[in-house]
Design brief:
alpha/beta, 2 domains
Length: about 290
């Protein structure tokens, strides 16, 4: 039995029966879209049904940008929960005005294995879904996480570049930290949202210490030793980098982002608590606490 094809057929059949506005396929390779497109003529006659792709794969996103037959939603990561995956894609689609509140949507998604769908959901888009755009609502945080995804791919030796970023009130962060060496970014006006500077920043990611990023995205310092020493709890197995970042986010009411030098996993801390973990290989994100609103 061809499960992906059967589910694609079911998605289109359900969309016709419930008068859905769109079918959303979460895909990492484009295969789910190919399945739906190949079946479109069998299930659609009026041409009103939209085909929407939600992907965290930059190459798929770019390849479909000029395809007039499909709407594309770019997402940075996919939550682990399948329900959360659907709501995350819907939130981004509402923000991008791909569809509107009140639209009935059929979502085709899987268990994390690229393009092996096993679940269908029918959801009515609601303005409440917009609240789920945790990363997308904060350009500084989303840019930091995107840079961390590149650092997680590894340096010349193929190993992830373990590093840390602390974002927020830089005066407080600087008060509870000190330089391990001369600040290599002093005198520069580099913003973490400027992707053209990421190659330059990567040179310092392997150095000891953390990057300090002001709330407007300006990178104030690199190679900064975090010395807040607030009592916090982090999951067992995490090292001193994660503990130092968690402590600093508690002391400075900041947000911290770490890249593990072991497995490349990206962790987000907010005011002393770990709120999310992102697997750089699958782009699946697991949330533990509601991030600040």
């Amino acid at each position: 039995m061809d499960v992906p094809r059967s589910l694609a057929e079911a998605a289109l059949r359900v969309a016709a029966e419930v008068d859905a506005r769109a079918v959303i396929a979460l895909t990492e390779t484009g295969k789910n879209l190919e399945l739906l497109s190949g079946l479109k003529s069998e299930f659609q006659s009026d041409g009103k049904l939209k085909f929407v792709v939600a992907t965290s794969n930059p190459s798929i996103l770019q390849s479909l940008q000029n395809d007039a037959s499909v709407k594309v939603i770019g997402i940075m990561a996919r939550p682990v929960s399948k329900t959360a995956q659907a709501y995350h894609a819907i939130a981004q689609g509402l923000h991008d005005e791909v569809f509107s509140p009140g639209d009935r949507l059929v979502c085709l998604m899987g268990n994390g294995t690229p393009d092996m769908p096993d679940t269908l959901m029918v959801v009515e888009a609601s303005p409440d879904h917009l609240a789920l755009r945790v990363l997308g609502d904060d350009e500084v945080l989303s840019s930091t996480v995107e840079l961390c995804l590149q650092l997680a791919e590894g340096g010349p030796d193929g190993k992830p570049l373990g590093t840390a970023f602390v974002l927020g009130n830089c005066k407080k962060i600087m008060r509870y930290s000190y330089q391990l060496m001369l600040n290599p970014l002093e005198g520069h006006r580099i913003k973490i949202t400027d992707r053209s500077q990421w190659g330059f920043l990567k040179k310092f990611a392997s150095f000891d210490g953390a990057f300090v990023v002001d709330s407007d995205g300006t990178i104030v310092a690199a190679c900064r030793y975090l010395n807040a020493r607030r009592k916090v709890e982090v999951p067992k197995g995490l090292g001193t980098r994660h503990l130092a970042v968690a402590s600093m986010t508690a002391a400075a009411e900041a947000i911290g982002v770490t890249v593990s030098g072991e497995d490349g996993h990206i962790r987000i801390f907010d005011r002393g608590k770990m709120v999310a973990v992102l697997d750089p290989k699958t782009k699946l994100m697991e949330y533990f606490e509601a991030a600040r609103g």
